[in-house]
Amino acid sequence: MSRNHSQSAALYAEAVQYIPGGVNSPVRAFKSVGGDPLFMERGAGSRIFDVDGNGYIDYVMSWGPLIFGHAAPRILEAITDAASRGTSFGASTAAEVTLAKKIVAAVPSIEKVRLVSSGTEAVMSAVRVARGFTKRDLIIKFEGNYHGHSDGFLAKSGSGLATFGLPDSAGVPANLTRDTITLPYNDIAAFREAFAAHKGEVACVMLEPIAGNMGIVPPVAGFLETLRELTAADGALLLFDEVITGFRVSVGGAQQMLGVTPDLTTLGKIIGGGLPLAAYGGRADIMDVVSPVGPVYQAGTLSGNPLAVAAGLEQLTILEEGGPEMYDDLTRKIGRLATATQTAADRVGVPIQINRIGSMMTTFFTETPVTDYTTAKTSDAARYAKLFRSLLEQGIYFAPSQFEAAFVSTAHTDEDLDATIAAVDKAFDGLV
Ligand code: PMP
């Protein structure tokens, strides 16, 4: 018997009358996987429950922040405790100093850090800093990476833009993207050529050091190192957007894992413990261009919000306590899922590519190894949609889009994985 989604359907019918597309962020509309979007009611550990009372083992985990699962007791306690003292002061607090210190201690490139409320805001601000510091305008970014929805970063982006096949966004004046150069990810030769053509003009080269928004695509050997070497020699800044990878692949993020230190870093998701918090930081001399020390303006009514800071602080504290063993166990769990998925695909003869690193993975339905946006798009999105729908029906919630990652949390048990593996195995029977 198929699951009942009538309450979700009713809410969706109402939502579309008041909210564009019925959703507050496009991918939530389930457009690329079909069916009405689900309305969620609560989460607990590895599970999320919809308004019809269906439970799912969740591999979206709010798109990455919930590394300890839903409603993790220590995070809830930290938030409740902070809330009892007031929700916002618009003034400095001791906790934000503690959080800043923790971030500086953890992330190799960060000597000073500013807290903001979303990843979009973090990247937008970091790029303003890069331009203010270098007194240059050009930025280089990479196809299939996503850096939030601010003007100038949307050309050839991943995430929802990949899902909907949108090459760009309406409403962005051409002169705002004129200073953005977009290059293929992992293409060292293309980068060398473009960078040489703009010697002394590039403010920053920005990228996801491990791409997550075209599905997971790790950097090829030498890619990050080449960017580091050439930007340093030219006086351009290197910006790692670690909104997904920060505290996800290790406490020091992808830069620590891969041994390449950028000048600027953006963080989000995990550092907020599921509340709206993000950050940008980097070398102290660069960050000191930010107002009120320097001429680059950036501000926020809710920046450093006490609830978000409390959640983030507790989350980072637990990660520190867990140490490398905690990360190793997350990697082991995603490894189980990856191996089982490959086995199921091989059994039925469906070609797939699994990209995984740390506690994140993406299954692409293609015979071509996925190393950039072009190869990511060779994936058979219809097959992904079928897999998604079959898993959903079996009580497993993966991202409602091919171009995203699956995340495991410390709350996912081996029993959860056993159940997921059985469901994946069954789902592949329907993909032939
Ligand atoms: N950068 C990256 C790498 C992201 O994955 C995201 C969001 N998924 C953003 C920036 C934007 O963050 P937010 O959605 O919080 O604005």
Helix content: 25-40%
Strand content: 5-15%
Which strand order spans the largest sheet, edge to edge or round the barrel? 4-10-9-8-7-5-6
The molecules bound to the chains, other than polymers, are:
4'-deoxy-4'-aminopyridoxal-5'-phosphate
Shape: globular
In the predicted model, the low-confidence regions spanning at least 5 consecutive residues are none
Tell me about the biggest sheet?
7 strands, mixed
| CATH architectural grouping of the largest domain | 3-Layer(aba) Sandwich
The secondary-structure class comes to alpha/beta
Number of strands: 14
The CATH first-level class of the largest domain comes to Alpha Beta
- Helical stretch tally: 14
Distance between the termini: 22 Å
**What's the helix-strand series?**
HEEEHHEHEHHEHEHEHEEHHEEHHEEH
Report mean pLDDT, rounded to a whole number: 96
What oligomeric state do the depicted chains represent?
Answer: single chain
**Could you please say which CATH topology of the largest domain applies here?**
Aspartate Aminotransferase, domain 2
The whole-angstrom Rg is: 21 Å
Could you name the key traits of this structure?
transaminase activity; binds 4'-deoxy-4'-aminopyridoxal-5'-phosphate; glutamate-1-semialdehyde 2,1-aminomutase activity; porphyrin biosynthesis; Aspartate Aminotransferase, domain 2; isomerase; 14 helices; 432 residues; single chain; 39% helix; 2 domains; Aspartate Aminotransferase, domain 1; four-stranded mixed beta sheet; seven-stranded mixed beta sheet; alpha/beta
